[in-house]
Specification:
Pigment-catalase-like, 2 domains, 2 strands, about 45% helix, Desiccation-related protein PCC13-62, globular, two-stranded antiparallel sheet, mainly alpha
Length: about 180
């Protein structure tokens, strides 16, 4: 949280201290998964894989919409370090954009009108481009963000030992050691 905010907090961020902190902590990951599913969808060939990813995307999008709606309702509430909920979500989104290295793929709860839906609104409960189409991230971009390092080849963050699944390994050109 300190890296996203760009400042040291007086006390460590505790996601369980109160409901607002829990919502902010929950805001960190679902959207990254959502953009990853959108990014992966064009590469899917089988109808079974497409159905699976569509179902996972639906759940991720729903989770993100609920979190963003709950946070938007309290967007002006000051939380810590003199920052409001909206300012914190903006900083988290900007940090994820920085880690992903691909420009704006992530937006906070309030955006300039030119970035809002059809260039007409500033509220941003459903994060999408100005045509209301969801943003996409590649697998490498997702790893850069969830590792928290900005490097898909340098583990950290939510995967301190690195992602070990077949998809991550295929993206990185690595193979798991097989047990004998």
């Amino acid at each position: 949280m300190e890296k996203a905010l760009g400042q040291r907090l007086q006390t460590p961020f505790d996601p369980y201290a109160n409901s607002v902190n829990l919502l902010l902590a929950s805001y960190v990951i679902p959207y990254v998964g959502e953009t990853g599913y959108i990014g992966a969808s064009p590469m899917l060939e089988s109808s079974k894989a497409k159905r699976l990813v569509a179902g996972l995307l639906a759940v991720e999008a729903g989770q993100d919409a609920v979190l963003r709606c709950l946070l938007y309702a309290i967007k002006d509430q000051e939380v810590f370090s003199g920052l409001t909920v909206a300012e914190i979500t903006d900083k988290i989104s900007n940090y994820r954009n920085k880690l992903g290295h691909t420009g704006i793929v992530d937006e906070g709860l309030v955006v300039p009108k030119c970035l809002g839906a059809q260039g007409m609104v500033t509220g941003n409960i459903l994060s999408a481009d100005m045509n209301s189409v969801g943003y996409a991230r590649t697998g490498e971009e997702v790893l850069r963000v969830v590792y928290g390092t900005g490097d898909a080849h340098r583990p950290g963050g939510f995967y301190p030992k690195g992602a070990r699944g077949e998809i991550a390994e295929s993206l990185l050109g690595t193979r798991r050691e097989t047990q004998t």
